[in-house]
Amino acid sequence: MWGGRFTSGPAEIMEQINASIDFDQRLYQQDIQASKAHATMLAACGIISDSDNEAIQDGLDKIAQEIAQGHFTFQRALEDIHMNVEARLRELIGEAAGRLHTARSRNDQIATDFRLWVRDSNDGVIGQLREALSALLDKAEQHSAVVMPGFTHLQNAQPVTFGHHMMAYVSMLRRDLSRFEDARVRMNESPLGGAALAGTGFPIDRNQTAELLGFDRPMANSIDAVSDRDHALEFLSNSAILATHLSRLAEEVVIWASDAYSFISLTDAFTTGSSIMPQKRNPDAAELVRGKSGRIIGNLNALLVVMKGLPLSYSKDMQEDKEPVFDTADSINLCLAAMTGIIKDMQPNEERLRAATGKGQITATDLADWLVRELGLPFRDAHHATGSIVHLAESQSCQIWDLSLAEMQKIEPRLNEGVFSVLSVDESASSRRSFGGTAPLRVREAIVAARQELGLS
Ligand code: ARG
Which residue, 103, 106, 100, is CA-closest to 49? Predict the structure, then answer.
């Protein structure tokens, strides 16, 4: 490849550590797309002839076909996807192939290919996130008034609705969606024409290649164009945050599907059996969504560490950017697909959810609020009186709503029958009508608003 300067070949281990073709062949479509745009521009600017350009275009189309059909032999000796494609092009069209690399370097070539690939993956995640959101919204709507315990510290806290809990994840995934959309805007600039690092003396048209590749504009600085991997870091970082959200939901699915909770059931579609215990139905898909968050978070760290000490512009270290990104893209794709399936599959067990609210004095806050509202007690005093009533109920192994009025009046004599109306779980949930609260009415409004803003019917 650089025979002019070199007299002997590389050591075997040199070839091994240097070659990226084993993984960067995944960039073949983007590599060919970018080369076609570059050749078109070179011809339009009079830098290569129209007939050379035509030969290049036909040859590249043929190569794309060969690779797609599995007829292409990738060679390690040719290092990477760029050299593999170019070498084949020379076999196919001869001398004209050598003109393709005019006014270009592998540095701006890889920056362009990779950016196109990350952009495609980013778009894929956006589409999948919308499907996950749609599934969550449907689940929330179907169960907007189903009561369940809301937890803090995994202790019963206050009644909430299943729909409201689902809508918490809608809020989280909507922020994820906006992060991917936002990153796309920033990444959509073309590095092509940055050449090795300094730009080129040839009269190229960077606007034309940018436009042909669907970029909004060329990157402003040629050194930055070949050095920058922010787009990959943002993709990894947005994916890590998304994976963290999916992992929290997965964790709840695992807990909820356990025998002790039985809050939800999963069908055979998203569970597996045990090779020894015939009765088992394990939530493996959710566990793997939770588990894969580990590598997705690790991939972000891996590339941050690769990049942090690199001087400008290109260093070969940057070849280490591909595998973490490919792995994250594959993993996040699987996690989103699996989680969307799990969301659709899971059925809340309404009786168990309601029964679970029958523990932990879950409407104690409602009692305290009643004392504030009806008797004008300062909240701190109401909290104290309620604490004593809770203590009384616990000493009798019952819930506060099981106590008689007379028993409660021993603690707060001004209490009256009216208090019982706020102690029920349904009343508690439907009373929380503040904006963003758990009342079924608010949940349904939130669903309508989210569907509208997301353009989901
Ligand atoms: N395979 C290389 C990479 O992934 C392509 C760029 C090589 N550039 C160079 N100057 N050696 O980074």
Answer: 100
